[in-house]
Design a protein that fits this description.
By secondary structure, this protein is mainly β. 10% of the residues lie in helices and 56% in strands. The protein has one helix spanning 43-51, and strands at residues 2-7, 11-17, 22-27, 32-40, 53-59, 62-68, 82-89. The strands form two sheets. The chain has a four-stranded mixed beta sheet with strand order 1-4-7-3. Strand 5 and strand 6 form a beta hairpin. The chain starts with a strand and ends with a strand.
């Protein structure tokens, strides 16, 4: 599992690119955005988790949190990869 935390004051935009899986987005009080990403399904899952892009960008009037997971719906061993993303943001 991968966990990232960002201070996000002001307006917040989320850009999420996940080819398949489960995505949960929850609005919370505060100024911190928490991102938890988990990929299951064999050896390739760990590689995909490490290569996923999770970053904070400055935007006009606030911030943008970007989460991008490469499209590998099937691993090379024909096991389905299970992507789960959870975001808690103000």
């Amino acid at each position: 599992m991968r966990h990232e935390s960002f201070e996000t004051l002001g307006e917040l935009t989320l850009e999420v690119r996940v080819p398949a899986g489960r995505i949960e987005i929850e609005a919370v009080e505060g100024t911190t955005t928490e991102v938890e990403l988990d990929v299951r399904g064999g050896e390739e899952a760990a590689e995909l988790l490490e290569e996923a892009r999770i970053e904070l960008r400055e935007s006009r009037g606030g911030h943008e949190v970007v989460v991008e997971v490469e499209d590998r719906r099937w691993s090379r061993f024909w096991r389905r990869l299970d992507v789960r993303l959870r975001i808690q943001a103000p």
